[in-house]
Specification:
Blueprint (H helix, E strand, L loop, with lengths): L1 H10 L15 H8 L1 E7 L8 E9 L29 E11 L6 E9 L8 E7 L3 E8 L2 E8 L2 E10 L2
Antiparallel strand pairs: 1-2, 1-8, 2-3, 3-4, 4-5, 5-6, 6-7, 7-8
Length: about 160
């Protein structure tokens, strides 16, 4: 039994198996979904609406993964021997974030990711903003909802749509 469990853990999700489904998207589809100019406003402020612009550019990969992404649970394995897999794809993006409050554009750098074998046009965005802040959010149904985080606290929420 121990040999079987060891074989399953070693095989895991890292190698492409015969029965493993293929991703139905790649970097070009992810690039099309996220790259461009996004405009909107802060949605959690009672003050006057302030315009916000996020401009993102796709950065081509200069390295390639040597194995698949996987997540192994060590907790309760009731009735299960196989490791838990996570099908994640990420592309790097850079750009600028500009709010009426800040006045000048600030550089952003991070990733756009999709946690699925199938691509439905959405995903999650994780960007560094300056030395001590982050932009984190989700693209869903053509709307990018972003939270500005500083010291683990939400400092603002924005809703943006792409400019055609």
């Amino acid at each position: 039994m121990a040999c079987l469990l060891a074989a399953l853990v070693v095989q895991g999700c890292g190698a492409k198996g015969e029965n493993e489904p293929d991703y139905d998207y790649g970097a070009p589809q992810m690039r099309t979904a996220i790259e461009g100019k996004w405009v909107g406003q802060r949605v959690d402020s009672a003050s006057e609406a302030n315009s916000t612009t996020l401009t993102l550019s796709y950065v081509p990969a200069d390295i390639h993964a040597q194995c698949g992404t996987r997540l192994l649970e060590s907790g309760n394995l009731e009735g299960t021997l196989a490791p838990r897999c996570m099908d994640t794809s990420k592309v790097r993006v850079t750009g600028t974030f500009e709010t009426k409050e800040a006045g000048a554009p600030e550089s952003v750098d991070g990733s756009f990711g999709v946690d699925s074998l199938r691509f439905y046009g959405g995903g999650f965005l994780d960007l560094g903003l300056g030395a001590d802040r982050q932009l984190g959010g989700e693209l869903e149904n053509g709307v990018l909802t972003l939270d500005v985080l500083a010291s683990g606290q939400r400092r603002g929420r924005y809703s943006l749509s792409r400019v055609p």
